[in-house]
């Protein structure tokens, strides 16, 4: 009987210990799992977007992994800090610069999906405003996906792929408008030429 009581008592203690360990492993109510990791990733996003909107190339590079790979909106690919710097300086600061000013609002669709302790994948949408050197401006609604890695105790952006709707964006709309205007002008010019030829022919007959 004493052995049975000791066994039951031991079982209750073991169950209590297991319950306590499980409660310790679970985050408090209302707190997301891996909260510290997601907070670090949010801070990375905030610093990176701030540097982007200031056209602070050094600030951007400070958040990028040395082997980063970026696929830009125009389908160009940059690899490493050197490649990213060359692209940004050519597009925004060089003699053949295209972009005069840039501002982005970046939204994340969901929490970063974590793979182990050192890799995460995120995706979302972007609202990007471009002021071009020639004076034109447009707003682009885009999508993106990114991979982050943790090395040396901190998170880095390891890759990002940006894209936009191939069939519905401001550049396509502008090209379509230009095409329609060109067709209308060509039609009117053709009518004018036809009228002039007809008038000259009528004079020749008289």
Radius of gyration: 30 Å
**Largest sheet features:** 7 strands, mixed
- Quote the beta fraction: 25-35%
Q: What's the tally of helices?
A: 5
CATH topology of the largest domain: Nuclear Transport Factor 2, Chain: A
Distance between the termini: 135 Å
Shape descriptor: elongated
What's the CATH class label of the largest domain?
A: Alpha Beta
- The sequence of SSEs as H and E is HHHEEHEEEEEH
Description:
There is one protein chain. The chain is of the alpha+beta class. It folds into 2 domains: 34-164, Roll (Nuclear Transport Factor 2, Chain: A); 166-199. Helix content is 47%, strand content 31%. The protein contains 5 helices and 7 strands. Strands 1, 2, 3, 4, 5, 6 and 7 form a 7-stranded mixed sheet that branches. Strand 6 (137-151) and strand 7 (154-164) form a beta hairpin. The protein is elongated, with a radius of gyration of 30 Å. Mean pLDDT is 78; it is low at 1-26 and 169-184.
Characterize this entry briefly.
This protein is an alpha+beta fold. The protein contains 5 helices and 7 strands, in the order αααββαβββββα.
Protein topology:
Layout: H1 2-25, H2 35-53, H3 57-61, E1 64-71, E2 77-79, H4 80-92, E3 99-108, E4 113-115, E5 119-132, E6 137-151, E7 154-164, H5 170-205
Parallel strand pairs: 1-7
Antiparallel strand pairs: 1-2, 3-5, 4-5, 5-6, 6-7
Features:
Nuclear Transport Factor 2, Chain: A, seven-stranded mixed sheet, 206 residues, disordered N terminus, 5 helices, elongated, single chain, 2 domains, alpha+beta
């Amino acid at each position: 009987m004493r052995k049975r009581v000791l066994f039951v008592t031991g079982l209750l203690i073991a169950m209590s210990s297991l319950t306590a360990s499980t409660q310790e492993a679970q985050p408090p109510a209302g707190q997301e799992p891996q909260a510290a990791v997601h907070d670090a990733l949010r801070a990375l996003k905030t610093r990176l977007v701030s540097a982007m909107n200031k056209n602070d190339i050094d600030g951007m590079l400070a958040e990028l992994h040395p082997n980063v790979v970026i696929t830009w909106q125009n389908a160009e690919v940059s690899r490493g800090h050197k490649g990213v710097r060359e692209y940004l300086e050519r597009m925004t600061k060089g003699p053949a610069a295209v972009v005069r000013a840039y501002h982005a609002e970046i939204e994340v669709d969901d929490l970063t999906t974590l793979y182990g302790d050192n890799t995460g994948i995120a995706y979302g949408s972007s609202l990007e405003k471009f002021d071009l050197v020639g004076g034109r401006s447009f707003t682009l609604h885009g999508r993106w996906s990114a991979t982050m890695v943790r090395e040396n105790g901190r998170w880095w952006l390891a890759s990002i792929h940006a894209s936009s709707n191939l069939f519905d964006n401001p550049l396509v709309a502008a090209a379509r408008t230009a095409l329609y205007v060109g067709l209308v002008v060509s039609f009117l010019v053709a009518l004018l030429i036809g009228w002039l030829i007809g008038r000259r022919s009528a004079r020749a007959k008289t």
